[in-house]
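Title: Request for sanity check on FAD synthase prediction

Description:
We are preparing a figure and want to confirm that the structure record we downloaded matches what your pipeline produces today. Could someone re-run it with the sequence below and paste the raw structure tokens into this thread? We only need the token string, no images.
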Amino acid sequence: MEIDEAVRGCSDRRMRTKYANAVYVVQRAFALYPFEEVAFSFNGGKDSTVLLHLIRAGYYLYKKDSGDVAEMDAVKNCPLRTIYFESPCAFPEINSFTYETVSTYGLPLETIHSDFKSGLEGLLKEKPTKAIFIGTRIGDPNAVGQEQFSPSSPGWPPFMRVNPILDWSYRDVWSFLLTCKVKYCSLYDQGYTSIGSIHDTVPNALLSDSSTEKIFRPAYMLTDGRLERAGRTKKTNHNIEMNSVASNGMTSIEGEQTISRAASIIVVGDEMLFGTTEDKLGAALCKKLHAIGWRVSHVAVVRNEIDSVSEEVERCKSMDDMVFILGGLGPLHSDVSLAGVAKAFGVRLAPDEEFEDYLSQLMGNNYTGDRNEMALLPEGITELLNHKRLPLPLIKCRNVITLAATNVDELDTEWDCLLDTQESGLVQAKPFVSKHLGTTLTDGVIGYLELGLWL
């Protein structure tokens, strides 16, 4: 089978791992559900094009592994029931590519002209359908809470959503398409990186040729997959959330002299709440903030739970100029800090290709595609703070900075790097000065003296 041979013969280890995991999901689906009760939702986009060829490969391998080799040539194209929701707002190129692809691979097409939910209701009434392959990726708007096998949402017709490429990134999609040399919709060669309707989709401006605004480079040349949907929404100049309140026409020096900046510190860890570990990092960070003229308005220790982190971030992010999170951070699969930040800002976690590159370089051969959960970052609000002294960038989401330090020495290093990084937003001002008055008198004597003063 040409797809399987192309991927297994490539040198991209990550691609081979992603492919193996996705194909396993496909084979598992065919083992669980009768072939005639499984369908494939195809929309002509890059993700569903990848899924089409993964289904073909998975079906071929499923038949091969089951010993059904009598008609292997006949199953290479996997004549799976294919659903296409055709819209009058679709690009003509999408429609043309969809029908051409269906014809090429001999797919039994069922075209639906209503909305997705109504169409599925009608489809399931006519034909028993237990599972539907869908090209959902974790960065998609409807991916929140889904897994590779996810039942349909409440209120929808009952079926199993099968998501073989749920953990794939934008880069993974293009790596597969280019490695396998399969045909995709021509719009992607014209600068479109994510295709919706003709009313809300334009070529991605990041692919514009500098010499002319009318020529765009192909979609696979987009280097930052986080900006995949840049052509799906109209660009507006939003008011930038200032990490420092020293603005409104004041110079930075004036701001430093007259504005008091405030920060909150959130320490994540059950061990502190249970009393088994003393929180030394929070106290150390307070001293560092005071040393650059920042006031610490709030320090909280919260449970190692997504909701606990989210509630505290939600409370602090609009109250203070900066929020720092300590603890609860990996790179571990059990990390809850970033998930809590994402929930507080109302965004989803999505693979960050730049962070994946750093992880890959750091871990070498120990880093494989199925460990990409370590690179799931809050989508659309994340900025990586790089520094040559740090093995991995620190993560900043709007005015929330997540520190990875596990001890005071690591905190010292990360703090120095933050101060050396302009993007951190840590404008330095005059340090707070503390004066201490000591006495050898006991509390009882002091209380008596205070009482005498009042009398």
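Thanks, this matches our download. DSSP finds 15 helices and 14 strands in the chain.
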